[in-house]
């Protein structure tokens, strides 16, 4: 089945996710090559039309499945502990903030929530470690 080792149904599913077609077209896998290329044809028998395409590069998610299986799926800290941690680390600083609601560029003076030590805006608290995640900007 070519260098990518996928079944025809999976190849069709991926091709259709890349190039959506009207329901009256049928996707036909024409040929496989040893370097992982697959030739597709899309046919519309109702109007005697067809298109041919070559997907020679597919960039799907790149991850190690074993590593993904080992990732924690339950929080290591409770919501109450995360709330306490947030309150212990929050501070405010007075900043000018760009107002994106108006067509004319304007700014408004706001108190922005930030980390007490770094003074960077707090974005989240990692539920698996309890670490406070701040903006990198």
Describe this structure in words.
There is one protein chain. This protein has 137 residues and is an alpha+beta fold. It folds into two domains: 8-55, no CATH class; 71-134, no CATH class. Helices cover 20% and strands 35% of the residues. It has helices spanning 8-18, 65-70, 79-89, and strands spanning 26-32, 38-44, 49-55, 90-99, 106-115, 122-125, 132-134. Strands 1-2-3 form a three-stranded antiparallel beta sheet, covered by helices on one side. The protein has a two-stranded antiparallel sheet with strand order 4-5. A hairpin with a 5-residue loop joins β1 and β2 (38-44).
Which key phrases capture this entry?
single chain, 20% helix, 35% strand
Q: How many DSSP H or I helices?
A: 3
Shape: elongated
Radius of gyration: 26 Å
Structural class: alpha+beta
Largest sheet: 3 strands, antiparallel
Instruction: Work out the number of β strands.
Output: 7
Q: Residue-averaged pLDDT, rounded? A: 77
The share of residues in helices is 10-25%
How are the strands of the biggest sheet laid out side by side? 1-2-3
Give a quick summary of the entry.
This protein is α+β, with helices and mostly antiparallel strands and 137 residues long. It has helices spanning 8-18, 65-70, 79-89, and strands at residues 26-32, 38-44, 49-55, 90-99, 106-115, 122-125, 132-134.
List the helices and strands and how they pair.
Elements: H1 8-18, E1 26-32, E2 38-44, E3 49-55, H2 65-70, H3 79-89, E4 90-99, E5 106-115, E6 122-125, E7 132-134
Antiparallel strand pairs: 1-2, 2-3, 4-5, 6-7
